[in-house]
Amino acid sequence: MVRTRMFAVVLAGFCAACSSNSALAGAGGWQSSKADLYRARFVPDPEPPATGQNALDITLEASDGKPVEGATIAIEPWMPAHGHGSSAVPVVQGVGGGSYHATELVYTMPGQWELRVDVSAGAGDDQFAVPLDVQ
């Protein structure tokens, strides 16, 4: 019994430490777009995101699970609590197989940020709202 409780405490501590941005995505690390045209996995670099220059890897799929290539993706970092964004304009490049790499993600201060991600591809235009806890 004591071993079970100890394991539960250790496991809870481990999960809390490794899930700083668990709100980034739903089950399995995937998040659905607002109109459910796409689903994506967003992986920040560094993890957790930090004040200053950051990057982001995106895996984009159609709602049927097929990789989406050739999408136009625009990202706006936004800090909802302060009502402002960032002066830098993120650059997104396709790397093949439905994968994209974004650079120039600049967070000017720590706190709760949101990436407003616009996707335009074969299934149509849609958006993601990706919450981030910037350190």
Strand content: over 45%
Assembly of the depicted chains:
single chain
Largest sheet: 5 strands, antiparallel
The CATH C-level name is Mainly Beta
**Principal-axes shape call:** globular
**C-alpha end-to-end distance:** 38 Å
CATH architecture name: Sandwich
CATH topology: Immunoglobulin-like
Helix content: 10-25%
Short précis:
The protein is mostly beta strands and 135 residues long. It has a single domain (2-134), classed as Immunoglobulin-like (Sandwich).
What keyword list fits this structure?
4-stranded antiparallel beta sheet, Immunoglobulin-like, mainly beta, disordered N terminus, 135 residues, 5-stranded antiparallel beta sheet, 1 helix, single chain
